[in-house]
């Protein structure tokens, strides 16, 4: 039963009934923990009512916002957070009576890297005419294009861009791939631009998924022969598979590549360094089928039996020598497939995505995030942040306190970015959508965001400079350094 | 006295006639657009999108000239009612000529010259044909003339400015804002103003303007990240997704863009004093005649194209009978001309001196007989399937392969894939073509509608809601979007309500990897002929039997027929199935015992008898006479129709 109460603080209605539930808001920011330096959370109230009033309180400070959409300026947000956590009460008015819904909290915690970058792409099958690498200031809503394929491509010469990546969260050393037209791997090495072709006669493709060594001038890449097809009936819609994949190491100083792993019956992929750079984590699927014209058809037909396990391989960056690969998690034995291992900056946790098969979990509805405790090897499903839809690409913030991950939880198709805080007990806080100025942004926006990566700073090179560099430079070849010469174990 | 009066009235009357001519032509154009081109205009609107929200405004500002597209899309929505949309467009064309004449001081006796930009815009829009499916953004119909009107602004406004510095200030402001709003049109307008200034010997402002023309685009280029430098001169202009098609739109566009700067070179103002007895009737009439001929010659007038579009619109509205009716009306139009052609060919064949000459005549005439396009046939078959009449009527109707006249063939998947795949229950490929479409050509009412339907029929409620929300922001699709919301979170309703119920019943494919490679007809045939799902519905078995008959695959026909009879409890076999049974029995050592009617048996006997006296020398030669006798049978189809779209 509703009880009539009298408001006692800033802007609340004079009298109101007390509701029994918390308001439904989009994005769901009820009881979330957010970075102290994050942009204000705007949300839209989903309750049906004639009028709306939201009162945000923090210590002695109180701000009231009228209307269904609650957007607060950065100044007011900062004044609230100076007083501590926020308590938000939504009042709805129906038939002349106000009701105070149950209050919810917004807690502030560790700071987060001020920038992220991601790729904006439509969830299309073949066409990719509108692709951009975008950076976003997390302290505001400001976004900027790092590079867009529309700056170069012509009517009949499209360009795909992917796999942006940074060394230790710093944009002085970054890379991304431009494929097809004017293609090459674009690298910024201590501020100097390079365009290279990582494909050699001895490797199966140019570099694909990168992992920049944290202390030395190396980048580990997977090399992949990737194809895609469409499911005739499955709700996963699209399948992307490798017909072959290996791992290579690019030596930036020598401009040379060498093989890390190239077993023809193993599909090695997604390299990721430990924070000290002495261990390379990756995934690999064991799959044997002849290298003939029907290989692709067979692999696609049998795609549900292509499953990736988690491996690691010791590395000595001084001598550039590798140890023996160690199977860390035999996911295939339990009918699962692991991708995208990423180690936390403190080296304690290894987060990965896992689904029932395959390598491209962004199209696998059953993909969830899991985490391995590298201290004892225990693995748990991150139920507190997973949803009924897929979760995939994830990145640790540089202080290891936050994780940003991509998920299709909102509508099952468009990939959206969510953040979560790692608590001291190893649990994650309730995930929340990347704040946007317009609370309905995710609902209205027709592009997906993928490959979210944290950055300590914005990219300093202008998009036009990048474009001009790409246009005016041919991709320079790299040397191939045979595996035999470096293997010293 | 009377002679004097006559003398003075002649110029007055001819002057009026001369001035009336463009309005008469405009009226004719309006009627033509609304009556003949109506379906094409509706499709143009369907392929565009204007949403009443702030996001589309801000998005339009992400590229110079984008605002023009926004305004173009706003007006394009009125083509939903072709009478209204085309009237607005024609009024804009007339306004452009009026303002051109004023801005350039074109004398009355040459006023037809003021219509050159309007005519270019007409040619651009009416010559596109299948190009409409590959336009990058679907606002071109109005944005071209809007852009031109924008380009006129400096010439019109600067007459009211006094002094060089006022002019310079205006040009700086206008050039900066104008380039962002209208892209290349702003450059063209400013170039015209510069040339006009030079003619007035206003060197100071002309020099500054010249600098602005170079510096503003360069400055903008460094600010925007949405285009390449060589495209600076194309900003705000319509673009097409296939290189070979570019010339089609470039020629009228460049005429339109170059018109103002070139016309600014001509001292029209000084020509005013000269008088003419006929008030320019003759030169103007000649000009208008040239314009009319140019429009007629460049107009894409393929009747099969318009039929496809009209059928497509009917299918969008789920008006299956209407789609069939449109197909049949076009076929009927050619009955007489085909008969005449046949007689003429017969005559020539009689006179042919030898067999080689006969063969040449056959080849010469082969393409002259009417045949529908594959899209028409695909639409027609879909309509018959939805009306549950395919097995009785599909092979009674005209079939064939008329290749569309186009610079390059636009894949059927791109043109009709969304509709065909959705209604055949091939949902993941429908999804594919919705997205290929929006990536290539931008978001449209059409794509959003099919994406919403595809999401509803696959029970992706949140996704469907997202698309319906977008359509809810439009003027003419809001109602439809609201009508679809009842299906959200209501699978029972989806299962029991058209069009979704039938689509659901066709979704029997077993899971495997599959790719249409852009070949829609081949793929649909493959899906229903070679795929053998274990669990099917009566509706699926019916469609599978139909497509197996289309494929002419005899062994699979018997399999599909057995499945069909197992799930569909029919009292007698449908007409075409009986015909197929009769025909295929003749190929079997041990004929089947499926029951056929006496009438069907008699007709087949008549066919066999006819065939025994009329040997088929070649498909081209015998097709017409056989069609006259047996064109409503499956066995005619079996013998003479081997067409399948390879694009």
Q: What are the salient characteristics of this protein?
A:
heterodimer; A: 489 residues; mainly beta; eight-stranded mixed beta sheet; five-stranded mixed beta sheet; 5 helices; 47% strand; disordered N terminus; disordered C terminus; B: 647 residues; mainly alpha; 0% strand; globular
Topology overview:
The complex is a heterodimer of chains A (489) and B (647).
Chain A lengths: L4 E2 L8 E4 L6 E2 L5 E4 L7 E3 L5 E8 L2 E6 L2 E2 L3 H8 L4 E9 L2 E4 L3 E6 L5 E7 L10 E6 L5 E6 L10 E9 L2 E11 L3 E6 L2 E6 L9 E6 L5 E14 L6 E14 L4 E6 L4 E8 L5 E8 L8 H7 L6 E9 L4 E2 L3 E4 L7 E7 L5 E7 L12 E6 L5 E3 L9 E6 L5 E6 L8 E6 L10 E2 L7 H4 L3 E8 L7 H10 L3 E2 L1 E3 L1 H4 L3
Parallel strand pairs in A: 2-10, 4-11, 18-37, 22-38
Antiparallel strand pairs in A: 1-2, 3-5, 5-8, 6-7, 6-9, 9-10, 9-11, 12-13, 12-36, 13-14, 15-16, 16-17, 17-18, 19-20, 20-21, 21-22, 23-24, 24-25, 25-26, 25-27, 28-29, 29-30, 30-31, 32-33, 33-34, 34-35
Chain B lengths: L1 H34 L2 H9 L7 H7 L5 H11 L5 H23 L11 H12 L12 H18 L6 H19 L1 H16 L3 H21 L22 H20 L2 H4 L9 H18 L4 H14 L3 H14 L1 H17 L3 H12 L7 H13 L3 H4 L18 H12 L3 H15 L3 H13 L3 H11 L6 H7 L6 H6 L3 H7 L6 E2 L5 H10 L8 H14 L2 H14 L7 H11 L12 H16 L5 H12 L3 H7 L7
Helix pairs in contact in B: 1-5, 1-13, 2-5, 2-14, 3-4, 4-7, 5-6, 5-7, 6-7, 6-11, 6-13, 7-8, 7-9, 7-11, 8-9, 8-10, 9-10, 9-11, 14-15, 14-18, 15-18, 16-17, 18-20, 20-21, 21-22, 22-23, 27-28, 28-29, 32-33
